[in-house]
Task: inverse folding
């Protein structure tokens, strides 16, 4: 745990930019958050908002000649942004593990599953190959893969997408990390296995007091497991709070739109599922002022200036509207969201 901050992980003003043919893409722009031991922080938002880049940067996986980094990410006395490659190799897998978004490409296609699982264990644990291989089999059984001894001998292409995702989760859990970064960990799984995986994440928290960063689009999963939520849009955090604050008292219009896009089982079925109008902006040429302004029906003159992420109600958000104005707009028409969808009551 970071002695300076008292948090397991403390990210401060993280900025990640990439030089491209279209110009400089500011993929992450001034992101700050923290994760405590035993806590689940969910990072939510549309595709392309910077969620995965944030997680991969913490693992040192976005380093390249065309990348530029600013800010700090302090973990166990180490700044992950400026740490050497050797230091990150010692941390990756052992202290911080990541479940990657695409299980189809995350595994080595020419190595058997058992070798890939045991290789990670041997890199960080003092044990023989036979013992590591045995643990690999137990991990596969733990994440719900049938006939684990047989699957250990299989190549990735012999497994379904859901099984490959479970292999990635088993690999992430193999060394009982202090921090787990899970990037869409349940995307390729049916609801039964999804529940089992979330149960394993919960068990990791209970047994090792690990912190979890859950990167996801699925607000149903967020509601089930998260303690706090950070809402990202166009490379920035636009709202951050506890689970109840975000679901029951959302302050940013973008959050209203995300919640309004969810089908509600306790409400009449709509003729069409609501959606947020427009498309996310290009991070190579973001709009002036509030990044959400071009899509927001509540925008006004002051939105041409970028609002800071600050406490205006019970939790910080990035919107110039006053809490009273937000409450009034949410209550109009029974809390109608950006495209006609109802937000959380």
Result:
């Amino acid at each position: 745990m970071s002695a300076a901050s008292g948090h397991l992980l403390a990210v401060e003003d993280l900025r990640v930019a990439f030089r491209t043919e279209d110009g400089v893409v500011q993929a992450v722009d001034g992101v700050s958050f923290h994760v405590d031991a035993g806590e689940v922080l969910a990072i939510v938002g549309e595709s392309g908002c910077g969620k995965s880049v944030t997680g991969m940067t913490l693992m040192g996986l976005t380093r390249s000649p065309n990348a530029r980094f600013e800010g700090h990410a302090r973990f166990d006395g180490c700044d992950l942004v400026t740490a050497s490659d050797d230091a990150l190799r010692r941390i990756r897998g052992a202290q911080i593990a990541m479940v990657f978004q695409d299980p189809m490409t995350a595994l080595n296609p020419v190595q058997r599953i058992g070798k890939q699982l045991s290789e990670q264990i041997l890199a960080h644990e003092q044990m023989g190959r036979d013992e590591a291989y045995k643990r690999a089999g137990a991990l596969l059984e733990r994440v719900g893969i049938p006939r684990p001894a047989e699957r250990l001998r299989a190549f990735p292409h012999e497994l379904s997408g859901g099984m490959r995702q479970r292999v990635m989760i088993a690999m992430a859990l193999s060394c009982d990390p202090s921090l787990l970064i899970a990037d869409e960990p349940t995307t390729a799984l049916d609801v039964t296995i999804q529940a089992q995986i979330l149960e394993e994440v919960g068990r990791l928290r209970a047994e090792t007091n690990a912190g979890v960063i859950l990167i996801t689009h699925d607000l149903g999963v967020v509601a089930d497991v998260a303690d706090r939520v950070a809402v990202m849009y166009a490379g920035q955090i636009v709202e951050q709070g506890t689970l109840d604050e975000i679901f029951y008292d959302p302050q940013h219009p973008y959050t209203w739109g995300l919640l309004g896009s969810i089908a509600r089982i306790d409400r009449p079925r709509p003729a069409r599922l609501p959606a947020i109008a427009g498309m996310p902006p290009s991070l190579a040429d973001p709009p002036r002022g509030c990044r959400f302004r071009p899509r927001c029906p509540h925008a006004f003159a002051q939105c041409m200036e970028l609002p800071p992420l600050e406490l205006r109600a019970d939790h910080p958000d990035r919107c110039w509207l006053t809490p009273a104005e937000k409450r009034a707009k949410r209550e109009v028409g029974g809390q109608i969201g950006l495209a006609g969808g109802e937000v959380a009551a």
DSSP finds twelve helices and twelve strands in the chain. The CA atoms of residues 52 and 183 lie 7 Å apart.
